[in-house]
């Protein structure tokens, strides 16, 4: 582990206006509008309130943006030759990977903490043990979308690919039932998108599968739906990332 590299990566994230805007500012504003300041925010659901549901949804979206932003930037660095320079140092490939994992974990934690501080201050409610379970499950988002970020950048091989990946995340969040409750055909389609399963898993400690659709009608979703969704998309993104990295290295 190299603390200097980890510190440099985290500082670069905190100094990037784009990263802070998409990972902290936008999710926080959306939480305040649709959760913290909403009249229905105090309505009970599961073991907490609607306010907390919105906070969890925005946390999953924020973590996916943080993972894509960090890993995408790292992949760009590799394509531009930074990896070859690091290869001249005593750091092994395993050490470099460990550094990136730790940096991604720290960046994601900063993002998560910022949102939770705002959420608690604005009345989001959930028992402590269930809050810990939600935070733990949320980190699955980092693993899945880190692979997604690496795959997109190595496929398109340009700095703009990070913007493409981040822009697609907004659409995936809408499709994944994170920004607004869906119903009918849209909800059925939503269950096949990558952020839907992560949102369901993160909300499960609070709602235990219960959610309201766009008409306000409650509906319960079996846990295994979300588990299958996350496992399938993780497999897809891991394979895509491995193939794209291998192709980039061959060139």
UniProtKB/TrEMBL annotation:
Membrane topology, record value: Multi-pass membrane protein
InterPro entries noted in UniProt: ABC2_TM, T7SS_ABC-Transporter
Transmembrane residue ranges: 20-38, 50-76, 97-119, 131-156, 168-189, 223-243
Domain ABC-2 type transporter transmembrane: residue ranges: 3-183
Alphabetical UniProt keywords: Membrane, Transmembrane, Transmembrane helix
Subcellular location, record wording: Membrane
PANTHER family: TRANSPORT PERMEASE YVFS-RELATED (PTHR43077)
Protein name from the UniProt record: ABC transporter permease
Organism, as annotated: Arcanobacterium phocisimile
